[in-house]
Amino acid sequence: MKKKKILLVTGSTGLIGSEIVYELNKEYDVVYGIDNNERSKYFGSQGSTSKIKSFLIKNIKNYKHLDLDISNKKKVFDLIDSIKPNNVVHCAAQPSHDTAARIPIRDFEVNAFSTLNLMEALRKKSKNSSVIYFSTNKVYGDNPNKIKLKEKKKRYDYLQKKYRNGINESFSIDNCLHSLFGASKLSGDIIVQEYGRYFDMKTTCLRGGCLTGPNQSGVEQHGFLNYLVKCNLNRKSYTINGYKGKQVRDNIHSKDITNFVKLFFEYPRIAEIYNIGGGRSNSISILEAIELIEKKTGKKMIYNYRNVPRIGDHICYISDLRKIKKHYPKWEIKYSLSAIIDDLINGLM
Ligand SMILES: NC(=O)c1ccc[n+]([C@@H]2O[C@H](COP(=O)([O-])OP(=O)(O)OC[C@H]3O[C@@H](n4cnc5c(N)ncnc54)[C@H](O)[C@@H]3O)[C@@H](O)[C@H]2O)c1
Fold this sequence. Notes:
The protein is an alpha/beta fold. 39% of the residues lie in helices and 18% in strands. The mean pLDDT is 96. Nicotinamide-adenine-dinucleotide binds at residues 11, 13-17, 34-39, 49, 69-71, 91-95, 110, 134, 136, 185, 208, 210-211, 216. Nicotinamide-adenine-dinucleotide is lined by residues 11, 13-17, 34-39, 49, 69-71, 91-95, 110, 134, 136, 185, 208, 210-211, 216.
């Protein structure tokens, strides 16, 4: 009998996990999703992903939802043993700096220990699986803030030409302030690389810039553009924290992420790391984003300014996409910044 093709997605009702289930399910016999809606514990009811869970269960026939805690060592091990997935996308995480500082032990359990546990279960029971780990640009800590910057009217930018394309994968992850969230995600990143390099498993770490999309249960602490659009539409005040609102993020639509995930599973590699974000063309400062959203919705943004940056927050971060594009020439960013914001507005209205 032909073996079933199986995909496992952790954090399957979050922004990226749900998009992956939605876009990839047709390529698999069964898609298992692990998510215990812990996001609602981190961020309260606004962060709840329960609607997305109901949507997936109702609309995706081959989707099997597991309300499992990813840090439950035995249950994760037994699951891997029983399903032996062809491909795994590990998205489950505690995703915020502020929350990590409030619950450091739980943050580490979810982001680092669970990743080790998952990789070990895969090594023992399903070593041939291809694995994508969603890491973050916070693995570089505040090192990007040490780059010389120029201040423009509405944004910061890199002063030196060598950073014109942004931050690449050889940038230092060491000797800097990470926040506890950055430290736990970096631990997960190193573990996944190690299972690739040491045990010869097909793994990649995707060091994301700002990932966004209408499926995001955006909250103040996590989901910059989504939350900004939400505040504008709901006439809620947005707080800019420091750097005069000129801090720059590069934004990528969850569908562009999904397209990469498909390609990686087609052509997996061992122990890779890639920076993935919107790149220079999809980079925007908070002030610029406010202006663009106001133009599109016709509603004035209500905001206030707090002259204290978040600890370790990047002043200017742009992902250098040259490595990922070189290894996967078919991959490209299809959603411009303007298209991303249109999609957020339509999805949130
Ligand atoms: N969104 C971004 O801007 C961004 C940027 C860089 C990196 N990342 C990383 O990408 C990944 C996906 O991000 P996202 O935006 O989809 O996050 P998300 O918060 O929307 O989704 C994560 C999901 O994991 C689930 N989860 C948390 N703890 C769990 C546990 N103990 N057991 C089971 N499920 C649990 C949550 O309920 C949530 O649905 C994360 O690892 C995140 O750190 C995200």
